[in-house]
Amino acid sequence: MKNSELLTNIISTLEDNHINLYHDISKEQLNNYITNLDDIDSWDNKRFDLEMLKLFHLFKDAHTSYFIPYKSLDQKLFYFDNKCYISIDDVYHEVKSICGMSIPALSNTLTSLANYETNEWATVVVNRLIRNGYTYEMLGCYDNGIDIVYDTGKVVATITDNLQVKSQCPYSVHNDGKIAIIEYKSCSEYKDYPISQFTEDVKKTIEDNNCTRYILDVRNNTGGNSELLNPIQQYIMDKNMSGVVLINPSVFSSGRFAVARFKQHCHATIMGYSGTGGAAKSYGYNKNLQVEDKRFSCSIRLWDFSNIFGTTGSIQPDIKIPITIDDFNHKRDVVLDKAINYLQREIKNESTNCNQESCKN
Fold first, then answer.
1. How do strand 242-246 and strand 268-272 relate by DSSP bridges?
2. Is the pLDDT of residue 320 over 80?
3. DSSP string, 152-209
């Protein structure tokens, strides 16, 4: 199939399945964009993928994504706070350029390839692209390696075989005194630890330790099945507990929905260094599609959640907690530490007030 035919079929498939493909761009504008693409049928596979990322960027729907291969690099790159870092001997150093491009220039290029609705989510997608060896192949700057210049040196990164990463359970629970700390890093069920058992373990931790506060840590939760958290949310509502929800830009889709629900119904204070990545207008179901060997997804939203938290964009923290690259280097979880201290003060003040009331009586 010619590239031009493949592109036509991809657009047609999106139109047949997406609930509102032309929310941010008109069909006429899209057709004009495609008409201005040069010599489509001469593109190789990498050029086709690059142009599809640019095209999907126009839809401004973070759930409508064009999938590219992932190729590991033998150097660990990390995009944070509008800067790029490389891990050398387990210490992050600031990167000055990659493939001769300054980091601001590379960031702008990668942002134009990202599908996003909020600036927070754009940084997450840029981080994914900057760590993917295939990105540099698409950009035409990978030739047996990519030159990375950092603050104290230079390395040449090469593509390596993808390693099989052992899956880890995305949820756990423990306590710090009377604070139940619930880690919930994905809205999906781990086959060796059913969500029903996890729910019971949350209840047991709270009951056995007389917990009066909770921390729900949804950082890096990019979504899944929003219903899985319902029993835990209902239990916390029934107990009338208050607590803290920890967020970062990688909170997306059903992960963002969890933040909104706990804020509304579970007396939650939101803490983090930045807002969440997802936007409410994307909620509903997602559908994975394929034309030939090209894979992509699109929104098939069934409900309108745009007013669930008074905003359709990022949910911002009630208490913003700055973090630095130095915190990553020293493996300090500043956000969690601040949340624990915040709730410990609440518990102490509550106990003091209770004792004062007892004295009066």
1. parallel
2. yes
3. TEEEEE-EEPPP-PPP--SEEEEEETTEEEEEE--BS-BTTB-HHHHHHHHHHHHHHT
Residue 142 and residue 101: Cα distance in Å, rounded? 13
Instruction: Compute the distance between CA of residue 339 and CA of residue 222 in angstroms, rounded to an integer.
Output: 21
Domain 171-278+314-357 has CATH 3.90.226.10: yes
User: pTM (2 decimals)?
Assistant: 0.92
Say whether 327 sits in a helix, a strand or coil.
Answer: helix
pLDDT exceeds cutoff 70 at 310: no
Strand partners for 268: 243
Q: Distances in Å between the alpha carbon of 136 and those of 47, 72, 75, 129, 150?
A: 11, 11, 14, 9, 18
Q: pLDDT at position 330, please?
A: 96
Sequence-distant (6+) residues with CB within 8 A of 25 are: 58, 59, 60
Tell me which H or E stretch contains 360.
helix 334-360
pLDDT for 197: 98
As given in the structure block, the two tokens for residue 255 are: 């992960």
Q: Nearest-CA neighbor of 304 among 284, 287, 285?
A: 284
Q: Which two tokens stand for residue 70?
A: 């992932």
For residue 299 the two structure tokens come to 């929104």
How many angstroms separate the CA atoms of 221 and 126, rounded?
17
pLDDT computed for residue 20 by the predictor: 83
**Domain extents for the chain?**
1-163+284-304, 171-278+314-357
How far is the C-alpha of 83 from the C-alpha of 222, rounded, in Å? Answer: 22
H-helix or E-strand spanning residue 320: strand 319-320
Residue 95's DSSP bridge partners are 150
In angstroms, the CA 124 to CA 106 distance is 14
Query: What is the distance in angstroms between the CA of the first residue and the CA of the last residue of the chain?
Result: 85
